């Protein structure tokens, strides 16, 4: 940490703060500048020392040197990770595509969706059984029945399942049916839930919260990793900004930025990231070009009949076209992406 | 809802969409403008019709007319609510001040804090026993022992207790000790938690999420109200914006804006809202001037020793001074605020 | 500056970068930490050294220690400045209130406005003659005729005039009529305009751009100060955030934050800051409570007939009520504010 | 426009507002809903009627139906425009790449840059002669001498020149040397400047302001188009959001969103959009995949020696590599992009 003192601080105060730094188990280097004195605190830990030092009125600011996350860091594990479960393989050059409806609505709907997305080349099926909805008056999902339909769709198609879990007490239930457990954006900092999925042995897809910084995002992943589960997939799904023409702003620079700092795979969600069906394809292509390890896309046999997220859901035909284009971009850049299997 | 169609849409499509509107149980009025046709859908419900209509490629946009929340609305209950529990009374002209440390650290610390804030005029004691922390490596709170210390502080001072609950399975435990259950900003859309506190008979202080719109905030409250718990206090604690010189941006216009729309009391948190101790007093004063029903403030006998949030925590002396000034502003504007009781 | 190097950088590179620091005329202190090496560059100037050092691939980040502005700093001039011109006095305990219509529309309209705001206690008259409008199809102002009407209103009431100048070539013209030249939010970084008003001897009211950081805001003021004009009034008028229920988000913490760092007076614009007439009074009161040196408010004899900004303009009656309340809050906190003179 | 009235408004008020709508030359349709009455105002113009109607206290909100821009709209000109000047051709399937240093520093530097970017396949040269700088203490550009060096580089390489103009009085001077005039992000709403470049017959590259909405961006273009200059290139260069790990957030969904609404070509600036050299290539690739008509990129023979924007500037070697990859993606998607000419 670098502790920047205010102008004109007396030597005795500098000494007092340097002493406090040493009491924290750090080594204090006092550097007297022309206008300011700073104290470099070497041996930084990550336990709130920064806030303590900031609380001194004589301190202008405290600048951390080290990233606050550890296990997620590419400095800790030098090679990019691959997450693999059943039909889904993501990371280190392998592109995975997770596709399916926002909500599981019926056995027919999820089965039809699964077959169509598989035919187009998707490598996993998404579908919500427990649905976090902004309004208590909206459809809340089919719950366990939805999970059973998802399992039936896996049975029929071989596609791995990705579905959301919303609360710690459902983790075992969802893990019983699903191959990957999704933590939604609203729950990115639901720490009991993160701890609960940290204790299972299935991969977790962690969505970035719409106002989470990169450090907060990686620290949320760190909760899962710290629990012993090393199979975490990060998902950029858009942030909240002043832009109102799209549902969220999809900041694709997150992808290469994360990949310089963490070994965890990064996927992009152009459906939530834009909220507009016609923008899903260009942003899926852009995501791959930016270096994403995969995509997660909302697809429905009949978007206008979808029980949720209709405006951002693309049809199975549009998805097939999207996949054709994605394979072109992936091919041009040398990424490995599954071929379409056709009908 | 108003369904705005794209330019040059054929009559047959207009008819098709109007028919779909009628199938939703709404009445469709088609209005042919000079450049656009719009369909006014009368009899609006709040169940996702908007998204469905937005999914038609011929639809430019859909504009809802009604607010999506109901029970929270000032149109439903025409008078501003008062929440009262023990020493705390908030709303409709009564100002309550909730003060205390970020974390409960020891019995002595919370007791000393409680006595000091009471002496200065606070009407409730805050203190975290279960702490949501960005990093898994930070202090996570004393948990049930912390709750016991809080109860002891209430015993000693008569101050009502406000403390956070982080997960549904802890709701009963926390409700056993605390007078008001706080839902933190990170959990504003943790729906299982909202449902759980909707079923208890103690007031809930709901903090606005840092990227929540006002509609999302009121819909989160609606989850609690819909569960049968009508004692909800809304708390503005700052939003995430591009401003980096403060921890969050504290948008005080939320206060009068909410009070035009909801009967629920609104309190302001200038500690989290700024993240900087020296800004807490001016923003507390501004919150009262803006019409807030109360304040929630982080106070510690020795901020530099605080286990968490040290940089934004004020000393008990600074709090006493803040209260003197707050009483002046409240008095000037005719609000009722408790007098200091002294030591 | 603190230059943080990436992990595992070889000593030869550390030496190379330290040498480069010395070539910049700074003194380099190399501090070897447990995980990182940092170089403290002492003797910091403000000429782009930061960017140069950031361009090295081995550099993780560069953290400046000194604020980039100088003349505006409270470290340079230790006492808060007062800006005074005719009827307007602002700063260091003196509250000024600038009120009037968004646009000058006619001689009668501006005269009626001036008399009404003066009667209520305003100490300066605002009104736009040159209007920056988002759309080329909107009313662009009466231009020089508008300036003449403003001068006539000053003649009749004694109120100082505040009006906007949009382009360098108009600076002399506007300065001929107006007592204070306003730089609008859209022009906060129009450097030729800043330089032009830096050369005149009349006060400048500089509005914060809607996405300007505090450093950028103070550096814009620095352009004016650097030109030799020391009478700069800073104006917080709202920033752009994800909040869409108000026109802008009014971050009042700007006021005390600025006053800790600069000697320049700070005023608040609750009209643009909210965009909603009913929110103007509470946010004006909050601004004063937060420590603002003044207010600038849009007032029109008949808001529904206003040529621009109708939705955020309050009536002269509402303004008179606002002033009564503002005087109460100012009085409670010991600020000097002009009394109403009545009709 | 749709005028939404508050709940429980009396019939006489509805009639009064509907009458006002008719006085504006619009046709008023009153629609009585179950909870609200709305007035559809048909025949919408774009002259401030919305604000006037919003100023009525009985009005909840006013929703415009039509986009506020006209000439820029794809509804006005149904085909995507191509902008062509010398070596630069952009739009409707043609990709142009504008590359070069942030600032012109010397004749050698700009000539070396020009040759290198041409060899790699760039189709225009960028370089700043008049530099808008946040701080008055930073290098402000070589001014007219810089323009002369740019012209010499065009002479030597055949590359068209793109350079910024900052103030109306420089428009003729800059137009004398440059092929395309750039309006920087800080000046996007400098209306006198927009009007000045609207009167010349050279293309204008208009950068989006960091907090501009899409409507504001297109209305800024409309100022230029309305002046008679139809050769406007839009440039997405990043917006200001809470993200601090990049200089700006680059929202690539702007590209397909704009292309659905306007016929003007859209280019992406991954240099300013990220502020970090290592992110420029992935975001350039992503921009092309998202459908951009071109790129504008900061390239310098020796980034560490660059007089400005060093941290986001890539070397000529890195640019050559970027171009190889861009051509692959462009080829995969069927866009026309110039081949590298080699040294």
TrEMBL record, chains A, B, C, D:
* Record SUPFAM superfamilies: Aldolase
The catalytic activity of this protein is classed by the Enzyme Commission as 2.5.1.54
Residues annotated as domain DAHP synthetase I/KDSA:
87-326
Catalytic class of the enzyme: transferase
Task: Give yes or no: UniProt keyword Transferase.
Answer: yes
This entry's Gene Ontology molecular function terms read: 3-deoxy-7-phosphoheptulonate synthase activity; aldehyde-lyase activity
The UniProt keywords, alphabetically, are: Transferase
Would the keyword Transferase turn up in this protein's UniProt record? yes
InterPro entries hit by this protein: Aldolase_TIM, Class-I_DAHP_synthase, DAHP1/KDSA, DAHP_snth_FXD, DAHP_syn_2
Q: Which residues form the DAHP synthase ferredoxin-like domain?
A: 1-66
GO BP terms: namely: aromatic amino acid family biosynthetic process
> What NCBIfam families does UniProt report for this protein, alphabetically?
DAHP_synth_Bsub, PRK08673.1, PRK12595.1
Identify this protein by name: Phospho-2-dehydro-3-deoxyheptonate aldolase
């Amino acid at each position: 940490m670098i502790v920047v003192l205010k102008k004109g601080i007396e030597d005795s105060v500098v000494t007092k703060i340097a002493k406090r730094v040493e009491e924290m188990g750090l080594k204090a280097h006092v550097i007297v500048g022309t206008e300011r004195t700073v104290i470099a605190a070497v041996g930084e830990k990550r336990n709130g020392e920064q806030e303590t030092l900031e609380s001194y009125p004589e301190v202008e600011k405290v600048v951390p040197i080290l990233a606050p996350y550890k296990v997620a860091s590419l400095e800790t594990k030098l090679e990019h990770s691959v997450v693999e479960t059943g039909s889904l393989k993501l990371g280190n050059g392998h592109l995975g595509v997770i596709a399916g409806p926002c909500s599981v609505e019926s056995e027919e709907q999820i089965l039809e969706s699964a077959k169509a997305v598989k035919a187009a080349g998707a490598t996993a099926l998404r579908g919500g059984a427990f649905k976090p909805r902004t309004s208590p008056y909206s459809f809340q999902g089919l719950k366990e029945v939805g999970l059973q339909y998802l399992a039936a769709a896996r049975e029929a198609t071989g596609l791995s399942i990705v579905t959301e879990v919303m609360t710690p007490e459902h983790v075992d239930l969802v893990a019983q049916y699903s191959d990957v457990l999704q933590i939604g954006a609203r729950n990115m900092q639901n720490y009991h839930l993160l701890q609960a999925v940290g204790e299972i042995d299935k991969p977790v897809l962690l969505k970035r919260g719409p106002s989470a910084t990169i450090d907060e995002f990686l620290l949320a992943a760190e909760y899962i990793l710290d629990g012993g589960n090393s199979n975490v997939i990060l998902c950029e799904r858009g942030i909240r900004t002043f832009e109102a023409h799209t549902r969220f702003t999809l900041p694709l620079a997150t992808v290469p930025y994360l990949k310089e700092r963490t070994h965890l795979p990064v996927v992009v969600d152009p459906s939530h990231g834009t909220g507009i069906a016609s923008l899903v394809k260009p942003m899926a292509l852009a995501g791959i070009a930016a270096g994403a390890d995969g995509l997660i896309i909302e697809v429905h046999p009949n978007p206008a009949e979808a029980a949720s997220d209709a405006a951002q859901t693309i049809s199975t035909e549009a998805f097939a076209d999207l996949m054709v284009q994605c394979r072109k971009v992936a091919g041009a850049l040398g990424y490995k992406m599954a071929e379409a299997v056709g009908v």
